[in-house]
Amino acid sequence: VQLQASGGGLVQAGGSLRLSCAASGSILSINVMAWYRQIPGKQRELVAVISNGGSANYADSVKGRFTTSRDNAKKTVYLQMNSLKPEDTAVYYCKADGWMADNYDTFNSWGQGTLVTVSS
Predict the structure, then answer these.
(1) Angle at alpha carbon of residue 20, lines to 15 and 24, rounded to 5°
(2) How big is the CA angle at 28 (ends 24 and 32), to the nearest 5 degrees?
(3) Three-class secondary structure of residue 46 per DSSP
(4) Residue 102 — very low, low, confident or very high, per pLDDT cuts 50/70/90?
């Protein structure tokens, strides 16, 4: 299973960006999809997670500013980021787990990361 993230870029503080992450491969079902971010030299941290049914949870640092959603038919998860701050600058990674269609094995995959830079 491969995850392809897109939508990163450079934005001024207070601006918005929308990240997308599409899963491909022999997928039977995707369970949880999530967004993480990592600043160089720091640990990767969870930003948002969304269940198959659409229930979402967020890191305290992004609550009220970021919204995650998913389109199960498209096997895609989104991260709408509003009121961006310089401290949101990081490489953002998507992650998904679920079951393979061909052998019913579980998968747990990461996307390649997309850079978000917020200028002050």
Answers:
(1) 170
(2) 75
(3) strand
(4) confident
